[in-house]
Specification:
Layout: H1 2-18, H2 57-67, H3 75-78, E1 86-87, H4 93-99, H5 107-129, H6 138-163, H7 187-204, H8 220-233, H9 237-250, H10 264-267, E2 283-287, H11 298-302, E3 312-313, H12 315-320, H13 349-352, E4 417-421, H14 422-436, H15 441-446, H16 448-455, H17 462-467, H18 472-483, H19 490-496, E5 507-511, E6 533-537, H20 554-559
Antiparallel strand pairs: 1-3, 2-4, 5-6
Helix pairs in contact: 2-5, 2-6, 5-6, 6-7, 6-8, 7-8, 8-9, 8-14, 9-14, 14-18
Length: 569
């Protein structure tokens, strides 16, 4: 008996550590329903057993709501630090991943694995029980199961993006199930499962919801748009094109233009662009937040008023923005780098609505001017670590995703975190058509030029690109990088475009000569390259093909050696 109990406890510990064991007979505790607070912001409910649950639509809705708890929040933005758009100079695991200086002992890798499988188990539990409910319409059953199937596909998508082959678990597992000790399933098999879940979900989900209490629930458009993104990652061009076109043909979504060309793009990521504000018809899937109920800390992390910003834009990102004539900075006669302020002049308007520009309001308190007084308006980057203002890591700051009023207090931010927008669907459609070799100027006008028109940027014209010696693929990829900066997509784009060498390059900042004389003492120890630009991070590497996949975490391998390891690790 003692040996049997030891065996059971060992198996239970194993399942918990892998994320495959939850409360087997319990409903998860993250229930988020309600009208005023929004369905993602309800206090937890006490656990109840399967015997007493799954009786009616109200209980089914609560169980479906519980599955939303693992929909990513502002950690979506945090993953931007794995790419080459941003950097948080103090060492972090995301930076280590970006630099290639990590291995299978990384706690971040194991947390990602465990959290994703925990979420999958919660979804599996719902899908094994939801048909027990009575007095509920077939339409409602299809909706709730569609939401949960989407969430399961969402979690598996990240697993195969990052780890490649992974265990495909379609049901809840208990301590006696040998399946938990099995090998990984092939990436292609899991991908087909993801597509199947998304197809089923799209069939049962409505295009939108009429009740305000359902704001933020997963829709048919979300299932189709996510399918398009996943298909694009795996170069399934036909699937990506058709799924994106299906979203476009729903006629539900439109680009956010409130406030006009000079503000609308930035406003979309502030309180003005919240789903609850009513004007945003662009966001297809978001994690909504509610002031005083469900909050995060993104605005403060970007412009933290007494520390170094957690997200410093890199020179690589800043240089990526075209000049207002539609040409890159190395080709345009409009580009002028004689002063810091000049860097922001005559550029794609999205640059000034993404990167903090001199003369803009900010919440970082004292900037880099000669005094130590709080400034409501930003003028120049701060390098002095005197705890009186936000220190830059590169010479640049973000204004995107910043609600200035929320910067001053820890975790008082309630702007929504956008997972997928109609803008991305247009980009997916254009890229899929490009890779199929069927793109036309009309396609560009119906996709990329809609994004440019809303901010007043010069339109993309294929013949003009050719005349200027520019490559259409490079420019479409640039458009995606610019439009989706700080939305957690850059790392995944680098992986799927097989551009890992970009992550091996030194991370650079602004030119040292542009720092004022009274601030030079604070930058004297920062290295520069042969052109005088700050070198913020060196010793980076990217091994092909090794670093195109994360290693299976050592914790998981120790518990289940049958998982095997990815090549090179």
């Amino acid at each position: 008996m003692k040996n049997q109990n030891s065996y059971i406890n060992t198996r239970r510990s194993f399942l918990k550590a892998t994320g495959l064991l939850g409360a087997t007979a319990l409903i998860p505790s993250f229930f988020l329903t309600g009208c005023k607070k929004g369905f993602l912001d309800r206090d937890p409910l006490d656990s109840v057993t399967d015997i007493s649950f799954w009786k009616n639509e109200e209980q089914l809705k609560l169980a479906a709501n519980a599955c939303y708890s693992n929909l990513r929040g502002n950690n979506t933005i945090a993953m931007e630090n794995m790419g080459d758009n941003t950097i948080y100079p103090p060492n972090s695991e995301y930076q280590a991943i970006s630099a290639g200086n990590y291995d299978f002992t990384s706690g971040t890798l194991n947390s990602e694995w465990v959290n994703l499988y925990s979420a999958i188990r919660r979804c599996n539990h719902f899908l094994e029980n939801y048909t027990k409910a009575t007095n509920i319409s077939a339409t409602a059953l299809a909706q709730y199961s569609g939401e949960v199937r989407f969430l399961r596909a969402f979690m598996y998508s990240y697993l195969i993006f990052l780890f490649g082959d992974v265990p495909l678990i379609k049901n809840t597992l208990d301590i006696g199930d040998e399946e938990v000790f099995g090998p990984r399933n092939k990436r292609a098999e899991v991908l087909e499962f993801v597509f199947a879940d998304l197809d089923t979900a799209a069939t049962g989900l409505p295009p939108n919801y009429a009740a305000s209490a359902d704001l933020g629930r997963i829709t048919k458009g979300a299932a189709l748009a996510w399918k398009a993104r996943v298909a694009l990652f795996f170069e399934k061009w036909d699937i990506a094109e058709l799924a994106a076109k299906a979203v476009m043909d729903l006629n539900v979504y439109q680009l956010y233009t409130a406030g006009g060309p000079g503000k609308c793009y930035n406003d979309l990521f502030t309180y003005k662009g919240k789903l609850a504000a009513g004007a945003n018809k662009e966001t297809i899937l978001a994690r909504p937040y509610v002031a005083g109920v469900s909050v995060h800390n993104t605005s403060r992390e970007i412009q933290v008023p007494d520390q170094t910003s957690r997200y410093s834009p890199t020179k690589s990102l800043v240089d990526c923005y075209l000049c207002s004539d539609g040409l890159p900075i190395d080709k345009s006669p409009l580009y002028n780098e004689q002063t810091y302020a000049n860097i922001f002049k005559n550029r794609d308007p999205r640059m000034n609505q993404t990167i903090l520009t001199p003369g803009s309001a900010w919440g970082g308190q004292d900037d880099g001017d000669a005094d130590a007084n709080t400034n409501p308006v930003f003028n120049t980057p701060k390098w002095n670590a005197d705890k009186k203002g936000c220190i830059t890591g590169t010479g640049y700051y973000f204004s995107k995703y910043v609600e200035v009023a929320a910067v001053g207090t820890v975790s008082q931010d309630s702007n929504d975190i956008h997972h997928i927008r109609y803008a991305e669907v247009l980009l997916i459609y254009a890229e899929a058509k490009l890779e199929k070799g069927t793109i036309t100027q009309t396609d560009i006008d119906n996709t990329i030029n809609k994004l440019r028109d809303r901010v007043g940027m010069k339109r993309m014209v294929i013949t003009e690109l050719t005349a200027a010696g520019l490559d259409l693929r490079t420019e479409i990829r640039r458009e995606r990088r610019v439009e989706l900066a700080l939305e957690g997509q850059r790392y995944y784009d680098i992986l799927r475009w097989k551009q890992g060498d970009l992550l091996a390059q030194d991370v650079k900042g602004m030119k040292k000569s542009l720092v004022e004389s009274f601030n030079q003492q604070y930058v004297s120890t920062i290295a520069t390259d042969n052109q005088g630009y700050f070198v913020i991070n060196t010793g980076r590497r990217f091994v092909d093909p090794k670093n195109y996949l994360w290693p299976v975490p050592i914790t998981q391998l120790q518990r289940n050696p049958a998982l095997g390891q990815n090549p090179g690790w």
